């Protein structure tokens, strides 16, 4: 409760006379934390929305809710943004409503690809912060974010690193481990060369995070703590840059072995989404007799196929 109340002002930058909308399901952790407890404990107004980003009745539904309720900050999932973009790529629905009350947009719940983040930025002409941040059901509140309540950057959007969930929030000691041994941490600390590996958090965890699993303490230790001694194992993989921005690239098991090259599915998906005709995609591995896996593509449009092959070859 303390962490959630504290985060409303210092992380999300909300004032008590403002409205915060977490466009999520009430039964998901975001619903618990930021539809109910966080805003109400802090004394802000919260919005409980029943509907979808599209089809209720159209792709302007979220903009209507923001306008009618004078929302100051909204929390969206990248999937919702992509759904709106697919139905209304030029954002005609946005221009039907007055959303001048909106001071910031936060995205989380899954990795936000650069194309989706840049589309959101373009909608508001870089006038307001579009913040990609990262957390998990187990943590209860953000691990990494841009803390708008503490930041006073007039040109915040110029410091955005697409694909990054920004820097660790106070209380979260985020580190990258290249193997199962915590002794490897010192190597990562001394070498800021974007070492990729498992993302872990040095114990103890800050207030607000889980302390056990319901009636299953053994699984709590085995699943989250035992793999890396003195670290919470997030199950996510990625890297940090020299500015301590954390890039969450995939789950630790979302890696395809193609001809001895370990390729991240998230990186490949990010490349594919850069094409103007690709709204959303998923990369999965298929067994191959020689490689032992391959990542084939099924695309009907020949020109799009050529464009995507060019993008992929350039990246890999």
From TrEMBL:
InterPro entries the record matches: AMP-bd_C_sf, AMP-dep_synth/lig_dom, ANL_N_sf
Domain of life of the source: Eukaryota
Name of the featured protein: Propionyl-CoA synthetase
All residue ranges annotated as the AMP-dependent synthetase/ligase domain in the record: 8-177
Transmembrane segments: none
GO molecular function: propionate-CoA ligase activity
Native source organism of the sequence: Acrasis kona
Lineage per the UniProt record: Eukaryota, Discoba, Heterolobosea, Tetramitia, Eutetramitia
Coiled coil: none
